[in-house]
Amino acid sequence: MLVVDIDIWPGGWADNARTIQRIAIWNMSELADVSDYEYVISRPIKPGVLGEVPSARWLASNRYDVQVSRTGRIEGHRRSLGAAVLVGKVLADA
């Protein structure tokens, strides 16, 4: 699973940093050279609270501290292109 947290640092201070959004991406193709991925984009309902990384089990639970704002699927991503390209595809799809 690839997890990308988007943090803000008010005033540039790490001590005040908080995660405002999380993207979780997981491989659905058993790590094939060309793979399909599913993703969840979530954000905290209360500032700074994200809880656990979203997963299929998490989505089925009744957690209310995180709001899922988008889910989706990326098909046919060539793993050799790397994580940054995959994240770009997720952002373009969202």
Strand content: 35-45%
Helix content: 10-25%
Low-confidence stretches: none
State the secondary-structure class: alpha+beta
Average pLDDT taken over every residue? 81
Radius of gyration: 14 Å
Question: How would you describe the overall organization of this protein?
Answer:
The protein is an alpha+beta fold and 94 residues long. It has one domain. It has two helices and four strands. It has helices at residues 56-60, 83-93, and strands spanning 2-8, 18-27, 34-44, 66-78.
Offer a quick outline of the entry.
The protein is of the alpha+beta class and 94 residues long. It is built from two helices and four strands.
Question: Which short descriptors sum up this protein?
Answer:
94 residues, alpha+beta, 4-stranded antiparallel sheet, 2 helices, 4 strands
Task: List the SSEs and their pairings.
Layout: E1 2-8, E2 18-27, E3 34-44, H1 56-60, E4 66-78, H2 83-93
Antiparallel strand pairs: 1-2, 2-3, 3-4
